[in-house]
Structure formats: C-alpha cells, structure tokens
Amino acid sequence: MxxxxxxxxxxxxxxxxxxxxxxxxxxAGKPIAVGGRPDRRGVIATxxxxxxxxxxxxxxxxxxxxxxxxTLLILPPRFELYRAVSGQFHDIFREYTELIEPLSLDEAYxxxxxxxxxxxxxxxxxxxxxxxxREELGLTVSAGIAPNKFLAKVASDWNxxxxxxxxxxxxxxxxxxELPVSKINGVGRVTADKLRRMGVETCGDLQQLPLExxxxxxxxxxxxxxxxxxxxxxxxxQTSRVRKSISVERTYARDIDAMPAMVxxxxxxLLELAGRFGRIADRYFPTKRVVKIKxxxxxxxxxxxxxxxxxxxxxxxxxxxxxxxxxxxxxxKPVRLLGAGLRLQPxxxxxxxxxxxxxxx
Length: 361
Ligand code: TTP
Ligand code: MG
Known about the structure:
Number of helices: 14
Largest sheet: 5 strands, mixed
Shape: globular
Strand content: 15-25%
CATH superfamily of the domain at 245-360: DNA polymerase, Y-family, little finger domain
CATH architecture of the domain at 245-360: 2-Layer Sandwich
Number of strands: 12
Bound molecules: thymidine-5'-triphosphate, magnesium ion
Strand order of the largest sheet: 5-6-1-7-8
CATH class of the domain at 245-360: Alpha Beta
C-alpha cells in the first residue's frame, strides 16, 4: 500500500570524527573535531560526542571551539577517506535493498518495503545493518525505522548516538502529537519562532491550524507542514544513480599465493555476486566480466572481458578463472584482495517487453 512503506534512515554518528578515531584508536575518549585551523579562521566540520559536551558543534569557528574546550584536538579533514567509507556503507545497504537515496556521505534513506530479508522486518534489517557496520567497518550508525521518510529521519535522531528507534504505523498518530515542530526537517529557527508566536510548539498544536491559514503564512511549505504535522509524507525514496557496474570483493586474513586457493576464492565471490546481481537483473544486463586483484604491496590490477556471443552465462566460472589466471602473473605477488564484478547496461523498456515475451514463450 502507498502509505505502508518501510523506510530506514541511517545516519552515522559524528561521522568524520569517528572515522578519524577508528584510524587512530589513541584518540578514543578524547575530545576531537575535524575542521579548519583556528589560526586560519577555520570552522568545525564535526566534533565527537566528548567535544560536544563542551558545547563544540559543526559550523562553529575553530577558535571558538578551542576557547570552549582547550584540550580539543582539531584534525584536518580527509575527504577521500570519508568518501571511501561512505561507499562501504552503501555496499552493506545494497545487500538489503537497491532503493537507496543518499543525502550525504553519512546519511541515506533505504526503502525496504520489498525486501524479504529478516522476515521482511525493517527493524531487524536496521539492527543487522548497524551490527555489520560496527563489526565490518568499526563505526556506529544510528537508524530510524518508520512508514515514511519524514518520520524515519526524526526516529534516527531519537536515540542517537549508536541507537535506533522504530515508529510503527499504528504509533504514528500518537507519536506526532508531542513532537516539537523544531524536529521537522526544514523548520529552522525563523520558522520555529514564527510558529511559536502562533501558539504552536508541537505537531499536535500544528494540527489545529487549518490548511488555508498555513498556506497563507508559509506559502507552499504550509501544505507540507499540514501533512507532516499528521505524520504524512508521500515522498518516495529516490535512487538517482544509474549503475554502471556491480561487484563484490573481499580482503583475506591471509594472503592468497596459490592458484587453487585463488580459484576457490573466485567461486565464493561469484556466489555472492549472483545474489547481488539477481536483485537488479530485471533492470540491467551484464556486458563484461571484471576481476580485480590487489597484491600484498597494495598495487592492483583489473582485467575485463566482454561477455561473448558464444552463449555462456555471465557467471560462467571458467571465464572468471581464466581472467584471474591471466591477471595474477602481472604482479606475481601474494594477493590480499580479490574482486569479481560485471559491467552493466540498463535494460530499456523495449528490452523488458522482449524479456517478458520470451518468458511467456
Ligand atoms: P552530520 O550527520 O550532520 O553530523 P555527524 O555525523 O558528524 O554527527 P551526528 O550525526 O552524530 O550528529 O554530518 C555528517 C558529516 O558532514 C560530519 O561528520 C561532517 C560533515 N559536516 C560538515 O562538514 N559541516 C557541517 O556543518 C555539518 C552539519 C556536517
Ligand atoms: Mg551523522
């Protein structure tokens, strides 16, 4: 049903700062921030929760932050690293759904309405994602689970950091009554003040105002306020990205240095790739096979081949084996990471018609 979607909003906790702490565990428990230098009129991008206790927050002048918290360590940002971590978040998300809308590097909406993972329970899926991010990436993310994007975003903030909160469809009406309007995405200080002067503090108060009055005062945004005050939000999770490829890769605890082990590793990757590709095979067809090899010394090589007209299926194991056998000697060193993937082409509407014709035949 239209309004009974299952949305998860994920938001990493003090993202840049947490990544820096993961990279240098000696920083754990100390107040740190990521941002520009105080002597160069820099600003804070984010601060960890220890630093927030001193009143340090995003967008604050670094010099002010140092005044509030003299022991604060301000690290320069490393965007490439954060981007890479963000990609790793998405690799995990994609195992549960393809309907992902990123809002920033550390934030995304996931629509899991169609997922049959974890008996279709969005709350269990969110718990699983949080566990895997902790175990595999050494970071914490908070999650909100709700029937729409507005409520899911409110919910992810509810038990932050390292928390989650579910608003079930049957709880929405009661939940919004006491919800402060300041929690509505888009209601900043100005709008909140304006609403307060109209006697509105909570969404329950807001429900008392007729639509006409809200539109008169707030223009188009008035209609949105009218909806969200009732916990209604029909915006869909929008995936903007057209995929060009899909791949799975694994870093091995012990480097691989013999062909049989390599072949076994590739077979394992292919199983996983099949699962992942299976979920989007209705929208994409594979054009090439790709393997990636990262050697012990972190140099890497990739090799790809067109999926031939000879009729073998995309996941033909012998073809992938041939690719690694050819690529490995380029470095001739033990291998720390292997990847297997496919280059993709979106299926057009016509292809889809063709597909269903074939299936009927
Ligand atoms: P947020 O998710 O807003 O903040 P956060 O992840 O640091 O902390 P939390 O979610 O636990 O409250 O932003 C994500 C990253 O975006 C943040 O780590 C740094 C960057 N950022 C800025 O560079 N400037 C800003 O003003 C904000 C708000 C964030
Ligand atoms: Mg965050």
